[in-house]
UniProtKB/TrEMBL annotation:
This is ATP-dependent DNA helicase. Residues 140-294 form the DNA helicase Pif1-like DEAD-box helicase domain. It comes from Armillaria ostoyae. It catalyses: ATP + H2O = ADP + phosphate + H(+). PANTHER family: ATP-DEPENDENT DNA HELICASE (PTHR47642:SF5). Its cofactor is Mg(2+). One of its GO terms (molecular function) is ATP hydrolysis activity. Keywords: ATP-binding, DNA damage, DNA recombination, DNA repair, Helicase, Hydrolase, Nucleotide-binding.
Length: 338
């Protein structure tokens, strides 16, 4: 019986002695691989195809040094540090930390304002002109411009409360364009380091010219709920001068992931009484795309809430993450395709 089963999937029955010791899932994989092999061989898909294009006249001079993994890691660390040093030059007013880098500080101040200040609708007319110019340059539609101005007008208001914002919409509605426009505005102001972009995966982070939130916030899945002093210092230097975080692909975040991000920022910024440590957060993407890698839709921010039955640390983190997500009260939905 076993011989016939193996023969049906193109596996030599004489080799069964080496396969019967495999687990059930591995046996299934072997059988599936044999079945696919039987399909592609007759039609020639498994045969190597010679190069069709003539590349003899093309000279590609790529000099890749032969280095160890530690040497590559050291070079990447140095390049990241040089980028951070370049950002610090854009904001020389930040005080230096013990590591020689600079971090934002907020000094209590008292301002005497007149009645007109309390009823004015614009923070600064000159700033509004700059916003309009940047918006026109990038060709924002009405919905995109609304999202852009919410962020930029918030940035020029010294008394503004924490911004917790969500920019939603289907694909090709211009969420990345809004991010690029906000970046252009801050760059024009000479403060490009005020905004950083992060994402759950390296690929999605590369699309927004950012990093993974694990690296940016020092989140290590193997060290549950803890952060070392060394990593804490590195993350503080990394977030020096940062006031806005643009988190793309929010659909891939689980409730527990959102809690981890918030709790880490609370430790980093030393503000445990406010979500995300008071950092202004901008979430983007629509929830019809990829769900969380672990837990699927049941663990997603839009999934069912199991808070009343949270009897272990994992479900408690999910309940708190869900509660934090419900505090995202500034929402702009992009509906017009670009």
């Amino acid at each position: 019986m076993i011989n016939n089963d193996f023969a049906d999937f193109g596996i030599d029955p004489d080799a069964k002695s080496s396969l019967v010791h495999l687990g059930r899932k591995q046996k299934i994989r072997e059988q599936q691989a044999a079945a696919i092999h039987q399909l592609v061989v007759p039609i020639g898909w498994s045969t190597a195809v010679p190069d069709i294009a003539d590349l003899s006249g093309i000279h590609v001079d790529v000099d890749i040094a032969d280095r160890t993994w530690s040497a590559w890691k050291e070079e990447i660390t140095q390049m990241r540090q040089s980028m951070l040093d370049g950002q610090q030059k854009d904001n020389p007013d930040l005080p230096e930390t013990r590591s020689g880098k600079k971090q934002a500080s907020y000094v209590d101040q008292v301002e005497v304002v007149c009645r007109s200040h309390l009823v004015c609708t614009l923070h600064d007319k000159s700033e509004d002109v700059v916003m309009s110019d940047v918006s026109s340059e990038y060709g924002l539609n009405t919905e995109q411009d609304r999202a852009f101005r919410i962020v930029t007008q918030h940035s020029v208001n010294p008394l503004a409360e924490q911004l917790r914002m969500y920019i939603g919409g289907m694909g090709s509605t211009g969420k990345t364009r809004v991010l690029n426009t906000i970046n252009a505005y801050f760059t024009l102001q000479g403060k490009s380091n005020r905004l950083i972009a992060v994402a759950p995966t390296g690929t999605s982070a590369a699309l927004v010219k950012g990093s993974t939130y694990h690296f940016t916030f020092g989140i290590n899945e193997t060290q549950r709920g803890t952060i070392s002093k060394k990593v804490l210092a590195e993350v503080k230097d990394r977030l020096a001068g940062v006031e806005y975080v643009f988190l793309d692909e929010v659909s891939m975040l689980s409730c527990a992931d959102l809690y981890k991000i918030s709790s880490h920022l609370e430790v980093i910024l030393n503000k445990s009484h406010v979500p995300f440590g008071g950092m202004n957060m901008i979430f983007a993407r629509d929830f019809t795309q990829l769900p969380p890698a672990i837990g699927g839709k049941a663990a997603s921010l839009y999934g069912p809430c199991d808070g009343m039955y949270a009897t272990n640390p994992r479900t408690q983190e999910m309940a708190m993450g869900k509660a934090i997500w419900h505090q995202i009260t500034t929402v702009v939905i992009l509906r017009e395709n670009i």
